[in-house]
Amino acid sequence: MDIQTVTYMANDYDEAIAYFTQKWDFVLLQDEVQVEYDRRFILLAPTKQATMKLLIKQAKTPDEKALVGRQAGEDVFLFLQTNDFDAEYARLKEKGVIFLKEPEVKPYGTVTIIEDLYGNKWDFIGN
């Protein structure tokens, strides 16, 4: 088995799509209206070949809205890995991505924490 998709709560579909595609260079894999469910089905991923995908869900209820930006509470929500940390770090920094700390070299690679547009924290790890 493999985890294929993770739901990502957003305030707005288009805002989330723009952020991830323009700032992080994610790929929009699917964007279709599902009238029967009163929603859009939006899948984003770091690359077309990525195994893990983000399913963007626009928060509608008060409970869903409370999760936006707090999907893992105060902890890191997701881990983003790269094979070229220095190049990716420089590219993301140039695009205005928010880093919460300076990169640190650990036994498993270089790591820092990214804050996304809603405040979720992501570990950014690479070699």
Short account of what is shown:
The protein is an alpha+beta fold and 127 residues long.
What labels would you give this structure?
single chain; 127 residues; alpha+beta; 2,3-Dihydroxybiphenyl 1,2-Dioxygenase, domain 1; five-stranded mixed sheet; four-stranded mixed sheet; 3 helices; 21% helix; VOC domain-containing protein
Architecture overview:
By secondary structure, the chain is an alpha+beta fold. The chain folds into two domains: 1-68, 2,3-Dihydroxybiphenyl 1,2-Dioxygenase, domain 1 (Roll); 69-126, 2,3-Dihydroxybiphenyl 1,2-Dioxygenase, domain 1 (Roll). 21% of the residues lie in helices and 41% in strands. It has helices spanning 13-23, 62-67, 85-94, and strands at residues 5-10, 27-34, 39-45, 53-58, 76-82, 98-99, 104-106, 109-115, 121-126. Strands 5, 6, 7, 8 and 9 form a five-stranded mixed β-sheet that branches. Strands 1-4-3-2 form a four-stranded mixed β-sheet. The longest helix is centred in the first third of the chain and has 11 residues, at 13-23. 13% of the residues are buried.
On the 0 to 100 scale, the average pLDDT is: 96
Helix content: 10-25%
The topology string of helices and strands comes to EHEEEHEHEEEE
* Name of the CATH homologous superfamily of the largest domain: 2,3-Dihydroxybiphenyl 1,2-Dioxygenase, domain 1
CATH architectural category of the largest domain: Roll
Low-confidence stretches: none
Count of distinct structural domains:
2
Q: Which fold name corresponds to the CATH topology of the largest domain?
A: 2,3-Dihydroxybiphenyl 1,2-Dioxygenase, domain 1
The separation of the N and C termini measures 26 Å
